Amino acid sequence: MWDVMMWPILACVLLPGLLVYLGLHVVRRGIIFIDIAMAQMASLGVCFAVMKHMDLDSPVTFWISLGFTLLAAALFALTGKRNGEVPQEAIIGIAYVVAAAASVILLSYSTEGDEQIKNMLIGNILLVTKEEIFRTLGLFVGVGLFHWFLRKRFLLLSFAPAQAAASGMRVKLWDFLFYATFGLVVTSFVQIVGVLLVFTYLIVPAVCGILTARRFGARLAIGVVLSLIGGVTGLMVSFYKDLPSGAAIVCVFGALLVLAACVGLAVNTANKRAGA
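Request: output the structure for the sequence above.
Response:
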């Protein structure tokens, strides 16, 4: 077992922490589906590379995918909730649908189009290599340090946007920096695990943390722990039950979300009784 599962397990242990942190920002901003839209934009770049008969693992393919993602980052930064009556979720939804449709069209030129669409959606974490893990980890560490040094601005922008605007922050520029680094993380991770797992890792642990804790640090810690449990447990279930690994991980995360909701409800009820 270990010779097959070692690198997938290591990927589930080393990589998800940054996604939980970004997921807390995404949930607080109320743009839940931006991750899946950004992931789809990254996939659109990969589809373009496939149409041009490029190697999926080549640096050129990565940069093309990142270029599509940065275009989405610019779009979402310019069309934030502060800029008009059209909700940003509408823009995000439109971007996702158009990117998904364009991906299907581009892959129709490939003889392996159907298989590529499947791989983009559910990925295959079992095929992850040592080189992919440590290359992605290095990138995540760089993005994490960037957010750490500028955490006050990013936290203010996500958790107190009115105060950020009143303080004179260049909101659109900082929004773009957030979306650009977010897109860089998504572009790297989607090539390993697929669109559905990117969405799962970004949103479910963050929501679990929000349901069970009040402070940002506690939410982050809970989310990271649950992301480790969900990923490794899902891999074990897929191995022993001979199930698709991506789908198994998503379902385990769904069970963890139900458990977190029950724990949160119990804690809230106990707090209310104690205050009564």
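The chain has one domain: 2-196.
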